[in-house]
Design brief:
The chain is globular, with a radius of gyration of 20 Å. It has 14 helices and ten strands. The N terminus is likely disordered.
């Protein structure tokens, strides 16, 4: 009975033409759902907070509670431990988690391209990766981002010993502005890149997939793999309501900005609007003919292969171990 009801609900969503259309609750009761965010409230979450403000999750029969983590790597572990129903995380974190034996799987892409970028100011004179020779690069101390830098330097035929790496944690922006570092690797093109532009600094922002790193989904929605297999209805309804919120955010950036400002703590309105404008075109995916939130299995396997080649994981997982597209809007389960 439950499987038949689910099929009817999802088929109705498919007939309604997929991404961003109205979702229907599976029953008259609200089901609590805890969502662990990847970081503090920011424009990457525009679809989430627009959906909350407009009541789309309520209409889907879900009582969604977003939670801000103390550590960006914590949300995926919370899902694995059953302390959160869903989490916003990163493709690299999913690959690492699966290698560590955590039973998690990506169920939708929020941002289907890298935001992580090499960012510098004009005075640093970094026009191409080879210009990093003799420079200082600030990083956030994340091992796989250090592997990015090593791969970028190798491709540019720069001796890694000729580049100083300084771990500044979350203080990437101050490191560059103060001159402590010539560049940062780890800042996002739509956050730190926009912040520097709004300051009139004319930053040079190059996402890592333009520097030789295999492309990947920067932000993904992660769930427990066992729940996806056994009881996916609430997750499916969440994704559909989220995509609806993302579509509405793109239609009304001012409303999306206000939703972020209302939910965030001490955010600057002008900067937030600029970040929202840069972020909205990146949300929801852009692969023609594919559902919103689609994750490309071949690209995931290529990226996992990069991790394996650089010793970050012990083996090369298949895409089916890392992701599923079966819960995206318009897909009817067999």
């Amino acid at each position: 009975m439950r499987r038949a009801l689910l099929a009817v609900l999802v088929l109705a969503a498919a007939v309604a033409a997929g991404c961003g259309e109205k979702t229907e609750s599976r029953n008259g009761d609200s089901e609590p759902l805890t969502l662990a965010l990847d970081f503090y409230v920011n424009p990457d979450h525009a679809g989430i907070y627009t959906a909350l403000d407009r009541g789309y999750f309520d209409e889907a029969g879900l009582e969604v509670e977003p939670q801000v983590p103390s550590d960006p790597s914590a949300p995926i572990r919370q899902v694995a431990a059953g302390r959160a129903d869903l989490a916003i995380s990163y493709e690299p974190e999913v690959v690492l988690a699966r290698d560590q034996g955590l039973p998690v799987v990506a169920v939708a892409s929020l941002v289907s391209r890298p935001l992580t970028s090499l960012i510098s100011l004009p005075d640093a004179g970094i026009d191409r990766p080879s210009d990093l020779d003799g420079k200082t690069v600030a990083t956030a101390g994340i091992p796989y981002q250090a592997a990015y830098l090593d791969a970028i330097l190798e491709r540019a035929q720069v001796d890694p010993d000729a580049v100083s790496q300084v771990d500044v944690g979350l203080n990437l922006l101050p490191a560059v502005l103060s001159g402590r570092a010539d560049a940062m690797l780890g800042g996002f093109l739509n956050i730190e890149g926009v912040d520097l532009a709004e300051r009139g600094e004319d930053p040079r922002v190059v996402p890592v997939d333009r520097l030789g790193i295999p492309t990947y989904d920067e932000l993904v929605l992660v769930a427990d793999a066992n729940r996806v297999a056994d009881d996916p209805e609430a997750i499916r309804l969440f994704i559909a309501a989220l995509e609806r919120g993302t579509r509405e955010a793109a239609r009304d950036p001012a409303e999306a900005t206000q939703a972020i400002l209302n939910a965030g703590d001490g955010l600057d309105p002008k900067l937030t609007r600029a970040e929202v404008d840069r972020t909205l075109p990146l949300l929801g995916g852009d692969e023609p003919g594919k559902p919103c939130g689609y994750m490309n299995p071949r690209e995931w396997e290529a990226f996992a292969g990069f991790f394996a080649d650089h010793g970050l994981i012990s083996s090369r997982p298949g895409a089916s171990e890392l992701l599923t597209n079966e819960l995206l809007p318009g897909r009817v389960p067999e």
